[in-house]
């Protein structure tokens, strides 16, 4: 049975919670996880069965905990109890723990709502909790979910990209010719070959100040007489050095003599990185900046604040990071940290996962300086009024400790009932309190000070503004009073009041602000005339279905827009529906070619619209390490970069694949992780099959017995006809520079 009531946790265990530290005495408990989709019955209900098998020393254990995206769950054992502490964080209690002898095996089966189709929706953050409140990580392994179709599909829905489908895709992207020496991403606007060749070292190019009278950020490269000369605005020198040595090398190389003229078509070429849901270190963010510079991106939209964390130090408000950057077991109230979500080991002080961590003031300043050296602007985001749970809880702790309630962000007697997009019920600031405005005033001043110390001006701050749940203020006495005093008649007008208050604050500080589309969509002309002139950019993100016209609507309202369309530029979406791929799928799938096809003219059709540029987003719910983040960026980000620099068609899909093939050795040399596509499988109709690969030189291995190929399985040459005898299924997997692809499967029957 399931009880979604935090109050059911014993008071004694609540009191012990601050002592959550890893047990050093007890051996680690291992967890093995299996999943099976159940057949859909005549009512259309989709469910799957999860099985957790705990083995080890379970003496003194009171609960087993795990993270998983929130879904309806019910244990099959009636005597066991499943508690959802917050959405996505579960604790199982069982009387069977009391019978532990030291060498134990305990099995929990959970019937779960929905279809299981991706390992992104599998468990993480598994740990046990002892009777005295200690927590200990329990290493997790899982069954191969592709071993049977029931691991990723049911009798109604099967989204697996099978081998024959992948074979056709691989054929369609196969390059017809190798890329030339000046074929890079993004493509140069104009290359005039002048005859002959020169041996030059791009790392020793001569840089000359250049003030173009034409396009902004225009630059010129001349290769002639054994020299390379770069004429460019000085602010671009760092990025151009970085790009040219990446593409052309840092050793003498023979290049065709040429005059290259180039410029970006848009002033805003952005990438948003979310480090709130799962933390990325300053070191990794600097690597991300390096990747951005390689492909001409110039705005890092930095997202360190959300429901699940606050990850930038604000010295005058230490609770923001003390509470907001730490997650663990039994988190609320006096414990001074947030609930574990996505991953972790139950310990708010652990540094072994992406659950905990924050940027110190100096970390942020150092990142600003590195970005500035690469010609990249950092646009920090302070998410409000929704997506604010971390800040709300941190300021509640501050009020309890100090007795100062002036920074409370939500009324303590607010009885509003709502559910946010991420299933929270208490994550929205109150526009009727002064606390949110006082918080913004303090935090914005701190960001201004950090930018000043870094020697990098701050032009704007992103205020978020998205996904405020319906009903967020319907039980707020203060909001009711505000509406009466100001003549406000709807939640939307209350939200608009909040944005306008912030706009006035930003105007007074000499700053502009950015926001997601909700701050600008479907407002009256009076509001637009007041807000649009102070707006740096508005991200058009929710553009599926009936929202397809959002960019047009915002352009007509006079806002500077940044195309951030989910179906093209949300890099945290799955590369494909293969169950082994990492990512979300609410916006479909997005790969490098989807991003390449994000032509601005198709995304915003308003003539003379103020399209400032394009931005990619990487939300981090499924990104648990630097490697998973980089895999989402590479090669998807190349498609974004091409369209942000060149809005018109430049490279065909096969030509673009040739460029990606060229980039892979460079990524290997820099130690970047990147995504590897599947091999394809085709039956030839004569008892043989052929496999193809998206990459020359990849190693293909196959099996016929239903098991996934390993690095010891037989090798298959690409495009070779191979007999398969009486095999019922063919499995092929490729390894590229030691990196494995998802397994491709083709059923013969």
Which helices and strands occur, and which strands form pairs?
Blueprint: E1 2-3, H1 11-16, E2 30-37, E3 47-56, E4 61-67, E5 73-75, E6 81-86, E7 89-93, E8 104-113, E9 124-130, E10 135-137, E11 140-142, H2 163-173, E12 190-200, E13 206-209, E14 219-224, E15 227-232, H3 237-248, E16 253-262, E17 268-274, H4 282-294, E18 299-303, E19 305-306, E20 309-310, H5 319-324, E21 327-328, E22 338-339, H6 361-373, E23 377-384, H7 389-402, H8 435-454, E24 460-464, H9 477-486, H10 491-509, E25 512-516, H11 525-531, E26 535-540, H12 550-556, E27 561-563, H13 566-569, E28 573-574, E29 584-589, H14 592-596, H15 600-603, E30 611-618, H16 626-633, H17 636-645, H18 653-670, E31 680-683, E32 688-692, E33 699-703, E34 715-716, E35 722-723, E36 729-736, E37 739-740, E38 744-747
Parallel strand pairs: 1-6, 2-11, 13-15, 17-18, 17-30, 18-23, 21-22, 23-24, 24-25, 25-26, 26-27, 27-30, 28-29
Antiparallel strand pairs: 2-3, 3-8, 4-7, 4-9, 5-8, 6-7, 9-10, 12-16, 14-15, 14-16, 19-20, 31-32, 32-35, 33-34, 33-36, 36-37, 36-38
SS-derived structural category:
alpha/beta
Task: Tell me the span between the first and last alpha carbons.
Answer: 41 Å
Outline the low-pLDDT stretches: 1-23
- How many helices? The count is 18
Query: What is the strand arrangement across the widest sheet?
Result: 17-18-23-24-25-26-27-30
Corresponding CATH architecture of the largest domain? Alpha-Beta Barrel
CATH superfamily of the largest domain: Glycosidases
Report strand %.
Answer: 25-35%
Q: What level of helicity do the residues show? A: 10-25%
Indicate the radius of gyration in whole angstroms.
27 Å
**Total individual domains:** 4
Number of E-type strands: 38
Which geometry do the CA atoms define? globular
Fill in the CATH topology of the largest domain.
TIM Barrel
The mean pLDDT is: 94
Major sheet summary line: 8 strands, parallel, barrel
Specify the CATH class of the largest domain. Alpha Beta
């Amino acid at each position: 049975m399931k009880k979604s009531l935090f109050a059911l946790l014993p008071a004694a265990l609540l009191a012990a919670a601050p002592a959550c530290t890893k047990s050093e005495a007890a051996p680690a408990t291992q967890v093995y996880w299996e999943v099976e989709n159940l057949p859909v019955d005549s009512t259309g209900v989709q469910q799957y069965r999860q099985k957790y098998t705990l083995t080890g020393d379970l003496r003194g254990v009171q609960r087993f905990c795990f993270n998983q995206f929130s879904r309806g769950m019910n244990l099959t054992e009636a005597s066991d109890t499943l508690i959802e502490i917050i959405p996505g964080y579960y604790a199982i209690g069982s009387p069977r723990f009391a019978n532990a002898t030291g060498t134990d095996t305990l099995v929990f089966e959970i019937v779960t709502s929905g279809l299981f189709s991706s390992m992104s929706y599998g468990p993480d953050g598994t740990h046990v909790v002892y009777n005295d409140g200690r927590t200990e990580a329990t290493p997790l392994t899982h069954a191969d979910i592709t071993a049977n179709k029931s691991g990723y599909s049911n009798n109604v829905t099967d989204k697996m990209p099978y081998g024959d489908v992948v074979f056709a895709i691989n054929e369609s992207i196969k390059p017809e010719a190798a890329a030339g020496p000046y074929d890079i991403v993004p493509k140069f606007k104009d290359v005039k070959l002048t005859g002959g060749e020169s041996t030059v070292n791009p790392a020793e190019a001569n840089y000359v100040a250049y003030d173009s009278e034409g396009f902004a950020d225009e630059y010129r490269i001349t290769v002639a007489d054994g020299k390379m000369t770069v004429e460019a605005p000085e602010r671009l020198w760092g990025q151009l050095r970085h790009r040219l040595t990446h593409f052309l090398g840092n050793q003498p190389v023979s290049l065709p003599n040429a005059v290259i003229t180039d410029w970006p078509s848009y002033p805003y070429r952005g990438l948003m990185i979310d480090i709130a849901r799962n933390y990325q270190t300053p070191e990794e963010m600097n690597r991300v900046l390096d990747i951005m510079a390689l492909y001409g991106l110039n705005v890092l939209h930095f997202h360190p604040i959300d429901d699940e964390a606050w990850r930038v130090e604000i010295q005058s408000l230490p609770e923001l990071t003390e509470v907001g950057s730490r997650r663990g077991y039994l988190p609320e109230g006096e414990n001074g940290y947030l609930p574990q979500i996505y991953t972790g080991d139950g310990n708010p002080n652990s540094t072994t996962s992406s659950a905990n961590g924050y940027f110190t003031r100096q970390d942020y300043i150092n990142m600003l300086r590195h970005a500035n050296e690469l010609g990249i602007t950092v646009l920090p985001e302070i998410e409000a009024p929704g997506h604010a749970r971390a800040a709300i809880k941190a300021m509640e702790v501050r009020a309890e400790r100090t007795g100062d309630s002036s920074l409370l962000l939500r009324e303590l007697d607010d009885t509003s009932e709502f559910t946010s997009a991420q299933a929270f019920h208490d994550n929205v600031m109150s526009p009727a309190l002064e606390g949110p405005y006082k918080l913004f005033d303090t935090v914005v001043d701190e960001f201004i000070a950090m930018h000043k110390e870094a020697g990098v001006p701050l032009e704007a701050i992103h205020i978020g503004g998205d996904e405020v749940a319906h009903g967020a203020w319907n039980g707020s006495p203060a909001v009711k009073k505000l509406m009466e005093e100001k003549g406000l008649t709807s939640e939307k007008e209350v939200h608009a009041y909040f944005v306008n208050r912030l706009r006035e604050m930003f105007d007074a500080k000499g700053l502009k602000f950015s926001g997601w589309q909700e701050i600008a969509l479907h407002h009256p002309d009076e509001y637009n005339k007041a807000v649009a002139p102070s707006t740096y950019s508005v991200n058009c993100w929710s553009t599926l279905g009936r929202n397809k016209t959002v960019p047009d609507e915002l352009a007509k309202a006079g806002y500077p827009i940044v195309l951030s369309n989910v179906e093209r530029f949300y890099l945290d979406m799955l590369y494909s529906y293969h169950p082994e791929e990492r990512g979300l799928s609410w916006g479909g799938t997005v790969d490098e070619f989807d991003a390449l096809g994000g032509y601005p003219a198709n995304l915003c059709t308003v003539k003379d619209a103020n399209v400032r540029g394009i931005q990619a987003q990487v939300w981090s719910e499924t990104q648990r390490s630097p490697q998973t983040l980089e895999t989402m960026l590479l090669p998807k980000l190349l498609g974004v970069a091409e369209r942000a620099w060149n809005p018109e068609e430049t490279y065909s899909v096969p030509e673009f694949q040739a460029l990606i093939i060229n980039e892979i050795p460079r990524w290997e040399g820099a130690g970047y992780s990147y995504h590897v596509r599947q091999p394809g499988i085709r039956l030839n109709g004569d008892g043989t099959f052929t496999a193809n690969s998206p990459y020359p030189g990849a190693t293909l291995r196959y099996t016929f017995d239903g098991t996934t190929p390993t690095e010891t399985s037989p090798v298959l040459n690409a495009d070779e006809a191979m007999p398969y005898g009486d095999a019922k299924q063919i499995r092929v997997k490729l390894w590229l520079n030691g990196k494995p692809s998802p397994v491709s499967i083709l059923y013969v029957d």
